[in-house]
Fold these 3 entries.
Entry 1:
Amino acid sequence: MADTQVEEKTYTLDEILTAVNRNNRLVLWNDDTNTFEHVIHCLIKYLDYTDSQAEKIAWIVHTKGKCTILEGTWTEIEVYRKILKHEGLSVTNE
C-alpha cells in the first residue's frame, strides 16, 4: 500500500474572506446633499479614479440613482464604505 502524503497550508483571515466574498460591491447612491465636485473629489482621492472616470460615475449616479464604485472583499469594501460615509456620501456594502 502506497504512502499518502498530505500537504498542510495555513491561510490568513483576509485570504479566507477574499476567497469566500469576492462579490461584495460598494454602491454609491444619489442624494440631494453632495455636489458633483465633492463626489468627484472623493472618488479621485480615496479610490484613485481619474478625473474623467470620477465625472462619469457622478453622472451615472445622478441619472440612474446609483453606481457600483468598487468590488472586492467584505473587508476592503467596508473600509472604503466607512471612509466615504465619513465624507458624507451615501454608500452601501452589497
Entry 2:
Amino acid sequence: MQLLALGVNHHTAPLAIREQVAFGPEKLGLALRELTQNQHASEAAILSTCNRTELYVNTPSPENVTQWLADFHHIERRELAPYLYALPREKAAQHAFRVAAGLDSMVLGETQILGQMKQAVATAEEAGTLGLLLHKLFQRTFSVAKEVRSSTEIGANSVSMAAAAVRLAERIFPSVKAQACLFIGAGEMIELCMTHFAAQHPRRMTVANRTAERARPLAERFNAGVIPLTALPDEVAAHDIIITSTASPLPILGKGMLERAIKQRRHRPIFIVDLAVPRDVEAEVATMDDVFLYSVDDLGEVVREGMDTRVAQVAQAEAIIETSVESFVHWMEGRELVPVIRALRDNADRHRRHEIEKAEKALARGEDPRAVLDAMSHALANKLLHAPTHALNHASSAERDQFARLIKQLYGLGPDK
C-alpha cells in the first residue's frame, strides 16, 4: 500500500497557479477514471476547492501521478513542480487529518472543508476509484475531524470567508444596510455569504445563477430576487456589492462589462469579492478605478485577525492527530503483512493436509489409531519446525544470536526453555 497525497494549496501556490489545476465538478469523474484506468494509481480521490487541489492516491509511482496532473491541465510539469507537495504514507494521513479538522485551512478551524472532503469521497465512490486503503483513510479522517471538533475549541469564535467579506465591505461603505447586494452562484459558499450579509439588512439582495430553479429556494430564504447570468450586463450597475462563487471555467465578469457599469453609476464604487477558483472576475478588473476587487487570497489576510482562541487549541488538536496517524500507520503495516501471513498459513495447511491423507491411508490399512495419531503429530511438528531449525543451524556466527532471539520471541520461549 503506497499512500500518497499530492497537490497545491494556499500555502504553496498563488491563486494564478491554483486556478490552473482546479477540477470543475463536471470533470472530476472523468479525471478519476482516467487516473486509475491508466494505471498511474489503483485508487484515487480528488479534493478541489478555492484553496487547494489535492490528489489522494494508492500508487507505486508518484512521478507518474505528478506527470498526469500536469498533462491533464495542459501545464508544463516544470512550471507546476515548485508549488507541488508530495506526501507519502504517514505524512499523507497526517495531512488528510489536518485538512479535515480545519488545521490547514486559510481560516483556522473552519468547517466547510470537511463537507468538501466528504463530497470528494462521495464522487470517488461514484466513479469507482476508492479501494480498501482510501476507504480506511477517509473513514479515519472523518472520525479524527469529529474528535478534534468535539474535544477542542478549534471552531470557537466565528471567523469565515463570508464574515471577512462583510468586514471588508464595511471598510468601503459606511453601512451595508444602504447597499444593494448581488450574489452570483447558488452553492454553499454563496449561501454562507448571503447569511452573513442578510444579518446586516442590506437594501436589496439578488441571486444570479445559470439555472433559476437552483437559485430560487436560496433567494426565497433571504427574500432576494433572481436573475439569469445572461442578465448580468444589464444588472451589474444596479448593485454596490457583488459576491461571486461559481464553477465556471471562464470569467463571468469582464473588464468591459464593469467599465460600462461604473460609467452608468457615475463612478460610484463597486465592491467585488471573487471566491471562485478559477476566478469569476477577469484579473484586469483589479486595475480599475472605483472597483474594489478582492480574491480568496485577499480575504485570507482579513480572517487571520482575531484567531487567538482557535490558535490556542492547535496543540491539543495536533496531539489527537498524531495518535490517530500512529494508529493508521499500524493498520497499513498490518495490511502489508497480509500476503506473508497468508503464505505462512497456506504452507502450514499444505503440510496438515498431506499428513491427514497419510494418516487416513494408515487407518484404512488397519493400523493402530493411537500409533497413527502419534506418527502424524510428530511428522507435522517436524515439518513446521524444519524451516526455523534449518535457518538457525545454517546461520553464520554473526546471525546466530539474532536468529535465536527472534525464534524465542516468535515461539514465546523463555530464557530457560
Entry 3:
Amino acid sequence: MGRTLRSPGHLALMAALKNARLAANLTQTELAHRLDRPQSFVAKYENGERKIEVVEFVHVVHAIGCNAIDVLEAVQHAEFAT
C-alpha cells in the first residue's frame, strides 16, 4: 500500500462525501454546524487538503444522514478496480 492522499480511493471518498452532502441539500456551513466544526473542516476534506479519520467519517455520515456502507463501497470499488 502506497500513499493514500489523492489515491483513487481517497478521490472516491472525497466525491462520495460531497455528493452525499449535496444530495442531503446541505451546504458546507450547515454540515459544519452539525459537526460543531468550522466550515473549513468540511472544505478541506472535500477538496483533499486533509484526510478524514475513521471516527470523523462516522460523525460526518451521521450528520449527513447517509449510508456509510454506500460511501465505503464507492471507495473500495475505486481503490481496487482493475
